[in-house]
């Protein structure tokens, strides 16, 4: 693998700032995500993790700074260009966010209907839905409603939906929150197997230290609105810095 300094990041946030009145949430936060990498961003509640994600997916406008996806600054793109770029990104929302009134099949067909141009001639909607469900081991649940699924199954279906357009980048927002420890482990293993199968680059927002330990190639600690420290789990967990140590107390 090339040295990180020789290759362009697939995703880059530079000097991102966002304030709400006197509350300065992001104070020049920067990160780079490289191809095939699992990058974890950890921060305490209220540290700005969700604000950063919202800026990244366009639900919120940063006050300043740049957000580049595959070299394109999304803060200056028009709506049409943005929509095309968004098909390169899968997003697993905190709490799954399935449409309650739709079956599993309809939930997965939804992004395909919005982005028909991504379908290759040979690929049918049915085939893509089945492939996505098989990836998460839930082909048998295709005609069930979300209310008929356990929390872990809902998270898997949401992951299948995030994968259906075969994105290059997947954003995970607290993927294990609200799950029991066994189901959380299953979701983490699933994330790993998907990363291996498709070579995706993953940005994982979590405060689950166990998830970070198992999944990460690299971890960034978001403290006081900045990229306070970064390194492997091994490196950070052995740090003497009190701000860093606070993350790894069990």
From TrEMBL:
Keywords of this entry: ATP-binding, Nucleotide-binding, Transport
Matches recorded under PROSITE patterns: ABC_TRANSPORTER_1 (PS00211), ABC_TRANSPORTER_2 (PS50893)
Residue stretches making up the ABC transporter domain: 11-249
InterPro entries on file: AAA+_ATPase, ABC_transporter-like_ATP-bd, ABC_transporter-like_CS, P-loop_NTPase
GO molecular function, one term: ATP binding
Xref: PANTHER family: INTERMEMBRANE PHOSPHOLIPID TRANSPORT SYSTEM ATP-BINDING PROTEIN MLAF, PROTEIN TRIGALACTOSYLDIACYLGLYCEROL 3, CHLOROPLASTIC
Protein name: ABC transporter ATP-binding protein
Organism: Aquimarina rubra
């Amino acid at each position: 693998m090339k040295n990180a300094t020789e290759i362009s990041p697939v995703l880059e946030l530079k000097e991102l700032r966002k304030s709400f009145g006197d509350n300065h949430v992001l104070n020049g936060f920067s990160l780079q995500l490289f191809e095939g990498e699992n990058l974890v961003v950890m921060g305490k509640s209220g540290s700005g993790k969700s604000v950063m994600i919202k800026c990244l997916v366009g639900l919120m406008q940063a006050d300043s700074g740049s957000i580049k996806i595959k070299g394109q600054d999304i803060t200056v793109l028009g709506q049409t260009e943005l929509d095309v770029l968004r098909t390169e990104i899968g997003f697993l929302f905190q709490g799954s966010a399935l449409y309650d009134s739709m079956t599993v099949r309809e939930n997965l067909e939804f992004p395909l209907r919005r982005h028909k141009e991504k379908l290759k001639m040979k690929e049918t909607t049915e085939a893509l839905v089945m492939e996505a469900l098989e990836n998460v081991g839930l082909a048998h649940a295709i005609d069930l409603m979300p209310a008929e699924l356990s929390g872990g199954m809902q998270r898997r279906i949401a992951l299948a939906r995030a994968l259906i357009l075969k994105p290059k980048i997947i954003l995970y927002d607290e993927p294990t929150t609200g799950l029991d420890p066994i189901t959380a482990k299953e979701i983490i293993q699933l994330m790993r197997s998907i990363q291996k199968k498709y070579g995706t680059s993953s940005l994982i927002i979590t405060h689950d230290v166990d998830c970070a330990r198992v999944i990460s190639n690299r971890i960034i600690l978001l403290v006081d609105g900045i990229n306070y420290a970064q390194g492997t789990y091994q490196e950070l967990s052995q740090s003497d810095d009190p701000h860093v140590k606070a993350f790894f107390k069990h």
